[in-house]
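Backbone geometry:

***
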Amino acid sequence: MTLLILGLILWIVPHWLKRLAPEFRASLGAGGRGIISILLFIGLGLMIYGYRQAEFVNIWYPPAFLVHVNNLLMVVAVAVFAMAHTKGRLRGKMRHPMLVSVKIWATAHLLVNGDLASIVLFGGMLVWAVVSVILINRAEDWTRPEPGDKGRDWLFVVITVVTFAIMIGVHIALGVHPFPG
């Protein structure tokens, strides 16, 4: 559990550094981006490794039907994530599509995982995403971009389908079957 918590800290602190300590972040200069990227990569690795190694401590027993709710929410999370990476008509419909995607992802996983490590990981990521939106909204105004070309909407569908398929494959490879059978 220690590695999981350390990973969360190494993920959260560098992300919030720009908003909470802008002078310090600026003092790091251009080289600071590399340092921050390394910290984020290490944090992500520690979260994954720490989660996989954490002792299973059950807190609650999710009802079986929530697996279906989770899967539906995951399709929505992936679609919202794809919005952030396309220049079609959906561009600008949402201010923080990647952070909203993380919030949906974390909530979906909290619904189907009642163990302590899951609550720490997914709850921690949910808190990070919620606070990040608040920090960004307080720090800067947003001008909604104009919708993009409708000819680029196909990319939204491709990103959604491919990303969802990869996520299913990774889960199956890890021994977690997202579709009950």
